[in-house]
Design a protein that fits this description.
about 300 residues, alpha+beta, Formiminotransferase-cyclodeaminase, Chain B, domain 1, Alpha-Beta Plaits, four-stranded antiparallel beta sheet, 8 helices, 11 strands, about 25% strand, globular, disordered C terminus
Length: about 300
């Protein structure tokens, strides 16, 4: 049995009944565990963390697409997080002794099935990418849903699977394979978006900042503050503590305080860099947010025969 984590990101974070319907859809698939799901109204996005073998995960992802197809219309979707589709991104992450090659093969199989069943264009990304310029999500998402039709008209952005134009309501999707990634947000006690944007630019690896860090500044108008939204792609080189301290230092240079930080979904415990949750001013962090907590419980259940 292969052990794989799957973290679908869905473009709905406001309608609780739709979010729960998506969660129930996953729970109904035998062989898949829904470890965690969380939503954000400003991002208008939900992140689900699934665990299972390749076959059941494929069934669960296809079921999620079917649910999203009946509930989400990207023509009406608004949120601060970049996105190209209703089921925006589906990464497969190898755990335990599972190989990356297994996840690459699964991503390609799922991407093909999604395109065939739902007529949704699919881009392969990460380790499953078919071209160097498609490896990174920010490049695939550039232009977002609104500019997707024009982008797909270019020869270098023909999708890997499916039609050469966006699905009218579901847009497109990115399906891929990658190593563990930590989605991490640091909220600033200000409404000045230019501060969050400047900090994000300073810590971003592509701008000479911290290794393995991708970051953007986004407004959270419903809360009256701004956020530095981070994807940490290599926590062995840069920990969450490194990110938090860098953001706090840069914010202080702008005369701004850090209000709190949050982890979206689950994180390997090592990503904290030895820090206690209080050191990161983490919001609502419990042991359940550590991936190892769930893997240990899986071992207990397996050994007990339950």
């Amino acid at each position: 049995m292969s052990l794989i984590e799957c973290v679908p990101n869905v473009s709905e974070g406001r309608r609780l009944e739709v979010i729960e319907l998506l969660a129930s859809t996953v729970r109904s698939v035998n062989g898949v565990r829904l470890l965690d799901f969380s939503s954000d109204r400003s991002h208008n996005r939900s992140v689900f963390t699934l665990l299972g073998d390749a076959g059941p995960l494929e069934d669960a992802v296809l079921a999620m697409f079917g649910c999203a197809a009946s509930q989400i219309d990207m023509r009406r979707h608004r949120g601060v997080h970049p996105r190209i589709g209703a089921v925006d991104v589906v990464p497969f992450v190898p755990l335990a002794a599972t190989s990356m090659e297994t996840c690459v093969a699964l991503a390609r199989r799922v991407g093909s099935a999604v395109a065939e069943r739902f007529m949704v264009p699919v881009y392969l990304y990460g380790e499953a990418a078919s071209a160097v310029h498609r490896r990174h999500l920010p490049d695939i998402r550039r232009g977002q849903f609104e500019d997707l039709a024009a982008k797909m008209g270019r020869p270098d952005w023909t999708p890997d699977f499916g039609p050469s134009q966006p699905h009218p309501t579901m847009g497109a999707s990115a399906v891929g394979a990658r190593r563990p990634l930590v989605a991490y947000n640091v909220n600033l006690a200000t409404t000045r978006l230019e501060v969050a944007t400047a900090i994000a630019s300073a810590i971003r690896e592509s701008r000479g900042g911290l290794p393995g860090v991708r970051a953007i500044g986004v407004p959270l108008p419903e809360r009256g503050l701004v956020q530095v939204s981070v994807n940490l792609t290599d926590y062995a080189r840069t920990s969450l503590l490194d990110v938090f301290n860098a953001v706090k230092t840069l914010a202080a240079q702008h005369g701004v305080d850090v209000l709190e930080s949050e982890i979206i979904g689950l994180t390997p415990a090592a990503a904290l860099g030895g820090a206690a949750p209080a050191d990161l001013q983490l919001l609502h962090f419990t042991p359940r947010h550590a991936l190892e907590y769930h893997l240990n419980r899986l071992d207990v259940d397996t050994n007990s025969g339950s």
